[in-house]
Amino acid sequence: MSDVSAAVREPWPDLTVQRQGVGLGIWVFLASEVLFFGALITAYGIYRSIHPAAFLAAAKHTELVYGTINTVLLLTSSVTMTVALRAAEARLRRATIGCLAVTLVLGVGFLLCKGLEYRDDLREGFFPGAGFPLADPPTQLFWMLYWIMTGIHAIHLSAGILVVGVVAMLFWRRVLPVQDSTMEGIATYWHFVDTVWILLFPLLYLVGRI
Amino acid sequence: MSLAEWTTAASDYAERIDNIFWLLCTVSGLILLLVMALVITFVIRYRRGSQVERGELPPSLKHEVEIGWTAATLFLFLFIFWWAASAELAALSPPRNALEIHVVAKQWMWRFQHPGGAREIDTLHVPADTAVRLAMTSEDVIHDLYLPALRLKQDILPDRYTYLSFTATKPGTYYLTCAEFCGTDHSRMGGKFVVLSPAEYARWTAAQPEGDDLAHQGEALFRTLGCSGCHTPGSSVHAPDLRGVYGRLVHLSDGRTVTADEAYLRDSILLPNKDVVAGFSPIMPSFKGVATEADLVKLIAYLKSLSASASRQGAPP
Amino acid sequence: MTEVATDMTLPFAPVEETGAASYLDEGHTIMSWLATTDHKRIAILYAVSITIFFFIGGAAIALVRLELIEPHGWFLTSDAYNRLFTLHGIIMVWFFLVPSIPATMGNFLLPLMIGARDVAFPRLNLLSWYLYVIGAAFTVYVVIAGGVDTGWTFYPPLSSNYANGQVVAAAAGVFVVGFSSIATGVNFIVTTHMLRAPGMTWFRLPLFCWSMYTVSLVMVLATPVLAMSLLLIVAERAFGLPVFDAAHGGDPVLFQHIFWFYSHPAVYIMILPAMGVVSEIFACFARRQVFGYAFMVYALLAIAVIGFMVWGHHMFVAGQSQLANLVFSFLSFMVAVPSAIKVFNWIATMYRGQIGFEAPMLYALGFLGLFTIGGLTGLFLASVPIDVATTDSYFVVAHFHTIMVGGTVSAFMAGIHYWWPKVTGRLYHEFFAQFAAITMFLGFNVTFLPQFVMGWQGMPRRYHTYPEVFQVWHVISSLGAGILVVAYTLPLIYLGWSLFRGERASDNPWHATGLEWQTPSPPPKENFHHVPVIDAEPYMYHETGHPREPGEPTPVREQGE
Fold it and tell me: Could you tell me the residue ranges of all domains in chain A?
């Protein structure tokens, strides 16, 4: 196993404080992400309050099956990520790497499912512009928000997948010890991406359906 | 061109605003003088090496002084806010029966349409001592009508109406400019703002070569565009009765109640499914691309005239 | 005051000179700079970058002011003019002012002032500089590819559907450089929370550190909203998605809300660090504790918090409701109160002080006067009826330049001169610096006081051609701009000269308090050789009844003593 002291980086005095620092840093970064998505969700809220009927009509055409599958995939991946974090704290190297791998697979599964859903959406013409199937213009606002919200979420998820993959590789190659402060950071970020989806899912898929 | 054509205060409101401005200048000037006096005094008296008494201030004095100037600043700023806000609130409610002039802004020119049918480009004539209400919309980007002599401006948005109300008091020739950056010729999108005495304005209006007034033109459009096909009593299509609609409270199918103002009428023509009236189906087609901006002005003027005549005849709302 | 004091004790520095004594000696290759994680080197990378962009943005506005000598223009087309003032705004706001003090002085000094060896995340720090460079590369592309002409505010529908310049590239550049801000903010917040030396409690932090902390809070929370606003503009323009399109039921005013929700706090991002710098300088050059330290801290925090609640004062004529106008007006008056308190406290700091007139102090005094003027004109604009008359006129232009140029740039120059000996190990030539400071102050007033006048008279902003009645003011203003060109170029010359021929600086040429002055000039790579322990408040220039003599050591001691 790698020497724990190698995990301590300048200018931190010891690993415990470093972990706390990374934790604080990720939470502060997530505060900025909350504002980033918050602006978008606020725009959604404002437009929906101005055009309630159009939003209702437009949201009928989102694919609930794809959305539900994706929700299950992402929630499960948060469980596996949590297990990975606990394993790392207990210094169980193989378990950590294994759980990270499962998390990554679930994340990729989400993206694949999303890709299939996008293909279906496009085939039916639900991209605002010429050929949009619904007549009432404000329905295109809903679908604009759909594409931007899910797109930005997918980009964030992709970044998370990339980082998880790289970190798992670094653990596998023993470049980093699993008790390094890295797990703290990526687990928190992953949960955040999941939480954003939990907010987006009802806004996009459950309008008029509950 | 003279500076007075820019800076004359051509309304009571403008004069009131000037008073606030000069009061603020005085207060600011005094504060600035105080700051400068203190700084210059300290910088000279306490320059390095000067032989004057220096020592620690007692903490209680420090504390009192801090609370003192914080409170003083707070009260001064509250007072200024209150004074400015009350001037603003007083100017708020536009009087009924204002003379309504439609303004259409587009890159890079102004079109003004008077209710009597007169049309002008880049010059706006208004009567003095008359409440005027400008109903403004843009055909493209955001513009802003700035009338320096009235100390007023208002952004002009596409697909929406914004309003500017005033009562000018000093006849004269002034200026209007665009005050929201709108592209290449933003700086050339200006013109004259002419305040005429009411008698001169009446003469000017009568001399304009336009024919029918807006409401009559709107009535013609109401037929030619096909509105009357559904919106007349006796039509086979179930459509709301538009007599007296303007200014009325309307109950919508989603439970809301709105007032039928210009924006509502305009949206009903262009986005008919936005606010569907309770008890009616969303079957009205959109007239976007069919009714031009100018058409909309006339249609709305016609619909407003239905309210006026309905109230005159004592017809039920 | 610039004599070298060789008998100054240095508790945290080596007694004898070793080979690689300073951070500047740790590697002389390009790669040692481009791959550094040393916060001090990163600060210098930023300093070079923002200086380059300051002069590009300055060149743009020099051309604009030259053109404005003639009411109908004389060498620019309207499109070129519009692109130049847009470029000036974008560059000066995002590629100069926002990073200026935090990324240069904050990066260099925050760890030193709190007794740390570096910032919390040194590699993130380097990444933040590369994000700046990438954003800057987009902007350079925009310039080469013809420019963008929407104004720095990118309002739709002009920016999304009607402008024919490089809107997407410009928005992308600002988007990327925004993440540079956020990264810096995250780093500073964690650094301040977790890496303070023993004994450095929150209320013993120098006010500059407090200003770095509060500005970081604002950067982290406000900048992402700007990023979203620009992303939505790009979505509309590049992908044809109806976002703010009124024809589809969208609202261009929504963009304004989202944009100004960031851009008002952005102006506090630009002024809070300046306030921090100025506090340090008044303390040192009046040789006195900053008056009302606690109120100064609370004022910084109050400005940061209330600053998030006033964005609507940019939209009094945008189509907001009257109620919204009143609320935003009220809150705008409230945010002015802590700023006023700070002005009073700086003046009171000078009371019974020992005031020197070195260049940093001259710049700080200029800041004091100009910030007061700028702040007072802010009261005018916070009053709705006055704002209705003056918004989108030169009155507003003069107001914000007074704060940003008269305020922030003055403070930036003050800080550059104050910490120059620490950063470079050299002393600059005091006379030229004082001359430049005074020239800048005069040039500034000649440039912007006429703009207040013509703004009130009705001269709109962003105008290429204008009515002849305003020409006299434009000519005076352009003359002032010419003076400013001289005032800004002079420091390049004498500061550059000092790098090669300047007298070597001692570790504490100003005999100032603060941990940064307790290490050599320039500092070693790890800042301190021993962890400092702090047992006193900042600015202990004097204690009750006993003015501290120059050369008397300030009460910090080594751990274990």
Answer: 2-209
pLDDT at B261 over 90: no
Scan for tokens 């209007």, then name that residue: B176
Task: Let me know: does B177 contact B150? Beta carbons within 8 Å.
Answer: no
Chain B contact probe: residue of A50, A136, A141 with most B CBs at under 10 A: A136
Beta bridge partners of B112: B103, B120
Confidence of residue B312 (pLDDT cuts 50, 70, 90): low
Q: Inspect the interface and report whether the beta carbons of C158 and B153 lie closer than 8 Å.
A: no
Residues C244-301: tens digit of each pLDDT: 999 999 999 999 999 999 999 999 999 999 999 999 999 999 999 999 999 999 999 9
Query: Which residues 421-450 in chain C show a CB within 8 A of chain B?
Result: none
First to last CA, chain B: 52
When scoring B258, B271, B273 by the number of chain A Cβ atoms within 10 A, the one with the most, hence best to mutate, is: B273
- Residue span(s) of chain B under CATH 1.10.760.10 come to 214-313
What class, spelled out in words, does domain B214-313 have in CATH?
A: mainly alpha
Residues 29-68 of B with CB under 8 A from C: 31-32, 35-36, 38-39, 42-43, 46-49, 53-57, 62, 65-66
Of A33, A39, A148, the CB nearest to C235: A148
Does C129 have pLDDT greater than 50? yes
Instruction: Closest CB to B66: pick one of C292, C319, C384.
Output: C292
pLDDT value of residue A4: 55
Nearest-CA distance C265 → chain A (Å):
13
Indicate the residue of C82, C356, C393 with minimum beta-carbon distance to B184: C82
pLDDT reported for residue B133: 94
User: Where are the CATH 2.60.40.420 domain residues in chain B?
Assistant: 1-42+93-211
Whether residue A31 lies within 8 A of chain C, CB to CB, comes out as: yes
Separation of alpha carbons A81 and B227, rounded Å: 62
Q: Tell me: the pLDDT tens digits for C489-535?
A: 999 999 999 999 999 999 899 999 889 998 898 999 989 887 788 88
Mean pLDDT of chain C: 92
Prediction ipTM score: 0.95
Written in H, E and C, the secondary structure of chain B is CCCHHHHCCCEHHHHHHHHHHHHHHHHHHHHHHHHHHHHHHHHHHCECCCCCCCCCCCHHHHHHHHHHHHHHHHHHHHHHHHHHHHHHHHCCCCCCCCEEEEEEEECCEEEEECCCCCEEECEEEEECCCEEEEEEEECCCCEEEEEHHHCEEEEECECCCEEEEEEECCCEEEEEEECCCCCCCHHHCCEEEEEECHHHHHHHHHHCCCCCCHHHHHHHHHHHCCHHHHCCCCCCCCCCCCCCCCCCEEEECCCCEEECCHHHHHHHHHCCCCCCECCCCCCCCCCECCECHHHHHHHHHHHHHHHHHHHHHCCCC
Which fold, A2-209? Four Helix Bundle (Hemerythrin (Met), subunit A) (1.20.120)
Distance CA A54, CA A141 (A): 9
Check: CB of residue C485 under 8 Å from CB of residue C434.
no
Domain ranges across chain C: 2-16+33-518
Query: Among the CATH numbers 3.20.20.140, 1.10.357.10, 3.30.1330.10, 2.60.40.420, which is that of B1-42+93-211?
Result: 2.60.40.420
- Facing B177 at nearest CB: one of C155, C318, C460: C460
Structure-block tokens of residue C152:
């720095």
- Strand B162-167 and strand B172-178: pairing? unpaired
The CATH topology of domain C2-16+33-518 is Cytochrome C Oxidase; Chain A (1.20.210)
Looking at residue A73, its pLDDT comes to 97
pTM for the model: 0.90
